[in-house]
Amino acid sequence: MSTGPDDDGVTSTRDREGPDPRRWKALSVCLVAGFMTLLDVSIVNVALPSIRTGLEAPQSALQWVVSGYALTFGLILVPAGRFGDMYGRRNAFVFGVVLFTLASAAAGVAGDPTLLVVARLVQGLAGGVINPQVSGLIQQLFRGAERGRAFGMLGTVIGVSTAIGPLLGGLLINLGGDVDGWRLVFYVNVPIGILAVLLAYRYIRPAAREPRPRETMDPVGVLLLAAGVVLVLLPLVEGHEWRASAKWPSLLGGLVVLAAFAAWERRYGRNHQPMVDLSLFRRRSYALGALVGALYFAGFTAIFFILTLYLQNGLGYSALEAGLATTSFAGGSAVASLFGGRIVTRLGRPLVVAGLVLVAVFLAVTALAVQLVPGTHVAWAVAVPLLLAGLGSGLVISPNQTLTLSEVPVAGAGSAGGVLQTGQRIGTAVGIAAIGSVFFSEVASSRGDYATAFRHSLLVTIAFVLVALVVAVIDVITSRRAARS
Prior knowledge:
80% helix, mainly alpha
């Protein structure tokens, strides 16, 4: 990775002046906002009983409180990344944080389930605007080993926000009570968002280069991609609300629309700058890295979903106790992400391979611990294997993101990051749908044996991790062959 010219070969004003002295402060602002948006993916799960009590919400509304956020989040990632590339990442970042803050306040004051669902849909859109700007700004502000460290910090945020959400949600609900405690889950975003906007204008300076005037947002591409993502994600995030006979036509239709989107982008790219530069997928580091990320997120985020269900529904743990059980994974992931970010530029993809091996091995140990230890003590039994699996996870997420984006031109970093994160969101939805289906089917067939359901669904999680491991190993082997030739 270059320390002088931009990755696309154009020397920017920033490169001639040297690194931005405020870059680490700018990164901290980005990470705080990113943490806020990713936290809302998991924190709301433990608040659902409180929302049901406080608003007398039906199950369909509760489902949309969770799935609506995931749907709109994944829908906007790529267009938002493209917008930031064209018109300035700081402006797009600030707009997203302002919108997220207002939507959080609206969710907190919602007096009926419909208003809460609308606020969550807007929250998801805002989160999808913010996140590609974060990865794009890291590409823009950092070079070489520093970029690896910055992505390491981002990996820590991803891992911790996903794992600590149930714990923080439990604490806030205990503080606010069963009827209105859920409102604090949303209100907590408001002061954070206001602070992030003020600090963004102070520490994130606009990009030195003006957008090229002939670029457009590629409206046909935006519509095709939006339709394809909705058709693929909707039946997945809706889970048990849809019958299998209704899911498959939507999924197949989504794949057809995404194929049409790829054909359009190839045609459009002959004379214009497309929304997604499909030549990125001819870069082995990007194509295989994106696939590793999607597969790993399919297994990784489902761990907390099924563990929380097992502990709360199967063993009667409170929301706070269930959240505490996930903290060992979060702690391990946080430490390893920082370490992995520092050494990824030296070790490359073998570091990701090592992390995936650790995750697979210690998730298997977790399944064994659940089988051997009585249910009342299971949280203690799984603490150590989850800690070690978390260490492995920290060596996967941030190093993989660093390597995947390493050859991406800075001018297209936002849209490339958006595509990468869209793959992760789709992977998450596929994983939760598949693993959740195994879990609930096993609970039904075994008449409430949550321990067996957790173990069997954890095996599906491990399978996703192992497939990601195979892809990572292929990348290591092909890169070594290319180096020798």
